[in-house]
Amino acid sequence: MRGIDELQQSIRRGGDGGEGGEDVTSFFKSVVQVTRAEQQLVSAHRESIDESEQLLAQEKMLLDDLSEADGCSVDEYAVALERVLFEKVALCKRVQAKLNALKKQLADEEALSARVKQVPIY
C-alpha cells in the first residue's frame, strides 16, 4: 500500500488537491483489495476441491463398508455420513463467504471507477 500512498501524495501535489485525488486514491486501493479478494477466493476454492476429494473417498469407503457383511452398522454409517455432510456444508460456506467478499469488492471498485473520470498515469 506504500506505493498507493506515494501516488496519493503525488496527486495532491500535482492536482487540485481536492476530492478528485481522493477518488483516484480510493480507486487504486479498491483495485488492490479486489486482487486480494480474488486470490483468497481462488485459494479457498482450490482447498475446497482438495478437501472435497478426500471427503468423496471417505464416502466411498463408507458405502463399501456398509455393503460388506462384517462392515459397519447402519447407525455407524449414519453418524459417519452426517460428519461428512457437515464438512461438505462447511466447505461450501467458506467458499461462498470468499465469493461474497469478492463480489462486494468488485461492486465497491465499480462505484469508485464511476466517480473517477480519468485515472492519471504516473
Q: Which structural category do the helix and sheet elements fall into? A: mainly alpha
Unreliable stretches covering 5 or more consecutive residues: 13-18
Mean pLDDT: 85
Radius of gyration: 24 Å
**Net shape:** rod-shaped
Oligomer: single chain
- Major sheet, described briefly? none
Give the proportion of residues in helices.
over 70%
- Count of discrete domains: 1
SS strand fraction: under 5%
Order of helices and strands: HHH
Q: Enumerate how many helices there are, as a single number.
A: 3
First-to-last CA distance: 16 Å
Number of strands: 0
What does this molecule look like?
Helix 1 runs antiparallel to helix 2 (19-67) and helix 2 (19-67) runs antiparallel to helix 3 (74-115). The chain is mainly alpha-helical and 122 residues long. Helices cover 85% and strands 0% of the residues. Mean pLDDT is 85; it is low at 13-18. It has one domain (2-115). The longest helix has 49 residues, at 19-67.
List the helices and strands and how they pair.
Elements: H1 2-14, H2 19-67, H3 74-115
Helix pairs in contact: 1-2, 2-3
